[in-house]
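Case study.
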Amino acid sequence: MTRQGQRIQKEVLVILRRHLIPRSAYDVLGELRQISPKIAPPTVYRALAALTQRGRVHRLESLNAFIACQCDQHQNASILSICDDCGTVEESVAPDLVEELSGIAGQSGFAPTRHVIEVHGLCASCGTGDIPA
Amino acid sequence: MTRQGQRIQKEVLVILRRHLIPRSAYDVLGELRQISPKIAPPTVYRALAALTQRGRVHRLESLNAFIACQCDQHQNASILSICDDCGTVEESVAPDLVEELSGIAGQSGFAPTRHVIEVHGLCASCGTGDIPA
DNA sequence: TTATGTTATGTTATAATATAACGCAAGCCA
DNA sequence: TGGCTTGCGTTATATTATAACATAACATAA
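After joint prediction, the assembly is written out as follows.
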């Protein structure tokens, strides 16, 4: 990775950390362009891929969007709880559950390498009726 | 749903059942058009949404693709194990794990409504070294 | 049966997401 | 420095998905 690559990854991470709700790659691109107007989609996707691989960012597969890791580093897969009302995402870590999941998938000889665990629903604030629609 | 809607849903299901590996919406559209050339994307997406809602088809969020339900009806969320080599998908049902997952997500008051559980890796055939790349 | 309201469908267009391909530059090492 | 490898910028385009609105199908009751 070059210095320029590092710079962009850092900028992307800063942008994602500004938000509690997921941003699409093009949302991030839009914000990046406020600083560096010439940036093109592949640059953003590369930065997001690198950050995701290093666990600094999580990709929400069911939203096609990204969020900064809230835990500041962990090796296990995250459980991402997505509020379908306000959009906030809560991250949980549960190594036992991931183990169990690997066990179930592995019953037929399947060898897991990556787990996608996302839960949709309503967060505590949106679900209580405190804030009726 | 009208008769035409039923017809298309049935055709989509037949197409998906012809394949053991997931098909994108546009793959399905392409096959549908061999029968009914004038079909447009929204028609396919509507049929897939209806079939998914009824549990006849599963959407693979991490692939943006669809596969026919292999279990022939179940109410619980599926665990979908996706072979990154040959593309086959194996479906498992594990109500206990889904319960546990709901419990973890619910610790903060989150109320789950839908679970996305996908595991990437290598299936038994691809992982054993029997068929080296 | 016809009128009427409601929901589903067809159609067009376009939005949103993602990546292929390739030339140039940066970093690395002899 | 020169040659090698990898990463990056750039252009173009592929892929996935939906908005919007007109029309058609169906249900119901007068």
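Observations recorded in class. The longest helix of chain B spans residues 3-17. DSSP finds five helices and five strands in chain B. We will return to this complex in the next lecture.
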